[in-house]
């Protein structure tokens, strides 16, 4: 069975069950058909035995007197056997045809023990009754040859009809099973195509979703969609990882190259020690900051950063951001408002890690200073909106188009790739750290921007 195809196995099982059912039904029919035929023979022998039991034996002897010489007292009574028996069961007179039944011992006691019920011996139905005169008995047996002939004809007809029906049903079942399994062949073809690399292939719906094949098709298509998404996500993740490694390597190589270059320049006597150490210190600080940012992002990715949460108010961070803006660029007009430029700031209680949230705000302030012209206005908004605590840093800089705005939270992404790495542009990790820290607090960070309309970074956290 394991070597057969599913189609052959289904057809074989169906034909086996059909054959078993036909054999059982034919057996019931033959048994039911034989019973009335046997009952008719029983009726004949019962009537014959009843009549014979009251007839005197000499009368039956007179019927046998005309037999040719050399013949036993018998007559050509086809299909019947009639006999008188003595008390020991030996026949004293019989009438029969060519066939004689093989009777058991029918002495006087045996006949009375049977109680006048017909019984069967091979090919005959027999009834024995005590004779009315004397101690003997009478026996009448009816042949079952006609019954067996009729049953054989019926059996042959059943076999022929059943065999023909099985052949027709096997041929029809072969095509029906083939048509029924066609959806599975489509599933096989789809699986082969997907194994060949075509992840966009889906199994066509050819059956109702209420059927087993329909539900299997829906489940497989859902699984294939998930697999395609997982493979695509994995490819994107690998691409981001390669880009991240390349960008990180480049960012780390830049300060290291500066440190190495100034060290070699000093050894060759081409630079003063004071200026050389100053440049080495600046590059070292830059390298240290970059490594710290990378370690922080790695901790956030691996959920290895433990946040020390405590009740706090975002107004504290907003006030500090206001002071930082004034200290970094005294020429900038800055103001403190509520969310969405509402007139007054409002309480914004949250439960969070104040030092990490202060790092978020510091990065946003540094981003506003670095990417907007000197003297441009900056607004800090704080309060609650839609049941959440909100803190906003809004600038009036050049803004960003939509395609760039979607990427600002990517690591090492810089909208202005021509900006010097050692200038205000940084390494492109600040906003990635903002997004990761806010997400670790269970909040969200949004960016509203458009070319020429500035940019507004909005933090949303659950209120305490």
Describe this structure in words.
There is one protein chain. The chain is of the alpha+beta class. The chain contains 11 helices and 12 strands. Strand 4 and strand 5 form a beta hairpin. Helix 7 runs parallel beside helix 11 and helix 9 packs antiparallel against helix 11. 22% of the residues are buried.
Strand element count: 12
Q: Name the average pLDDT.
A: 83
Characterize the biggest β-sheet.
5 strands, antiparallel
Strands of the biggest beta sheet: in what spatial order? 2-1-5-4-3
- Helix share bin: 40-55%
The succession of helices and strands, N to C, reads HHEEHEEEHHHHEHEEHEEHHEE
Please describe the topology of this protein.
Blueprint lengths: L5 H49 L2 H7 L16 E6 L5 E6 L11 H7 L4 E3 L2 E7 L6 E7 L1 H36 L1 H14 L16 H56 L5 H29 L8 E4 H15 L5 E4 L11 E4 L1 H17 L7 E8 L2 E8 L6 H4 L24 H11 L3 E6 L5 E8 L2
Parallel strand pairs: 7-9
Antiparallel strand pairs: 1-2, 1-5, 3-4, 4-5, 6-8, 9-10, 10-12, 11-12
Helix pairs in contact: 1-4, 6-7, 7-11, 8-9, 9-11
Notable traits:
464 residues, alpha+beta, Beta-Lactamase, Helix Hairpins, Heat Shock Protein 90, 5-stranded mixed β-sheet, 11 helices, 12 strands
